[in-house]
Amino acid sequence: MIKVAILGYGTVGSGVFEVIRKNKDVISSKFAEGLEVKYVLDLRDFEDDPVSEVLVHDVDIILNDPEVSIVCETMGGVKPAYDFTRRALENGKSVCTSNKELVEKYGPELLQIAKAHNCSYLFEASVGGGIPIIRPLRTSLAQEEILSITGILNGTTNYILTKMETEGLAFDDVLKRAQEKGYAEKNPDADVLGFDACRKIAILTSLAYGKNVSFSDITTEGITNIKDVDFAYAKKLGATIKLFAKSMKKNDKYYAIVAPFIVSPENPLFAVNGVFNAILVNGNMGGETMYYGKGAGKLATASAVVSDVLDCARHIGKHLEVKWDSEKLEISPLDGAVRRFFVRVSDTDEARIKSVFGEADILTGVAGGECGFVTPEMTEKEYKEKAAQYGNVISMIRVD
Ligand code: HSE
What we know:
Layout: E1 2-7, H1 11-22, H2 24-30, E2 35-41, E3 55-56, H3 59-63, E4 68-73, H4 81-90, E5 94-97, H5 100-116, E6 121-122, H6 134-140, E7 146-152, H7 155-167, H8 171-180, H9 189-192, H10 195-209, E8 219-220, H11 228-236, E9 240-250, E10 253-263, E11 276-283, E12 287-294, H12 298-313, E13 338-345, H13 350-357, E14 361-363, E15 371-374, E16 378-379, H14 380-390, E17 393-399
Parallel strand pairs: 1-2, 1-4, 2-3, 4-5, 5-6, 8-10, 10-17
Antiparallel strand pairs: 7-9, 7-11, 9-10, 11-12, 13-15, 13-16, 13-17, 14-15
Helix pairs in contact: 1-12, 4-5, 5-10, 7-8, 13-14
The structure holds L-homoserine (HSE).
């Protein structure tokens, strides 16, 4: 039996415990040696829970036990997860985590430590919950030059946008309902302002290109400015609105952005609704592949952690390479990115719109005293200049 320890018996940690126990036979049928949870670390006690048989309160019991070869870090946050992870790796124990914050901040460093100690640091569950995306990028797509990654990487915002579209509700009303149902956090900022999706695309882009993408280099806009009337316009365009986390390589330059986009039905991400996540990857040889599933939730996320545990269990004493150097990947300023823009202005002067923005498709009659239009392709810089020249811009959403 390969002995495993779990750090943190919260939502994901208790899910990992459950997956390993409930799927014991399934796991043994594919990995004969099998997995056994020897310890679970938590500050709390859990009477009448099977975990109480393996519960410890002192991390040193785990870190100093040579029988434990794999540690699942499901604590979240940076402290003390960073310290515990580092010490586990230095003791030659592989670490599997769902902790995107730690991965995004310290990924290259922790991978180096793992390499130096012939063990592994794997983090399938840190992006897209139960969706296999890190392993495909690391293995199945390793031969591809990645041209772009486009993800719906946040379930909370996808749920809110889906409800705004299907029920014609305002952002604040849907958010309130989502909070009541437990789909959105009490403090929803990390989700609705786009930061959660930003961390995830930073990780995916780092893996796609092997160098470090800094969270703070990615232009990030959330969904708080999306209005119900925007969906009325989108409907007229036969489109919808999604929060996309995107990165791409074009002419040896790298771009990344998190922002709401107008999305047409030709895009496979158009149909990704509710709390579901999906990631569309475009490779230069195989073209597009898409990965879809539950981006959060106890068992989905835990299942992804256990997939990493099995990978490590099959490679005890070896380092599973994840190419992600600490060298910075330069993200080019957004100004050079070319696309179309959906713009709302507080007048209906079609001649002036066309004289400033060019051959725009203009939509009138959606709301009083205004109109909306889709510009021809132009750079972000050109759009900004034209919007400043025009003056009456109410809002802009990029078109995918
Ligand atoms: N708050 C995240 C979401 C959870 O809504 O997708 C998973 O990271």
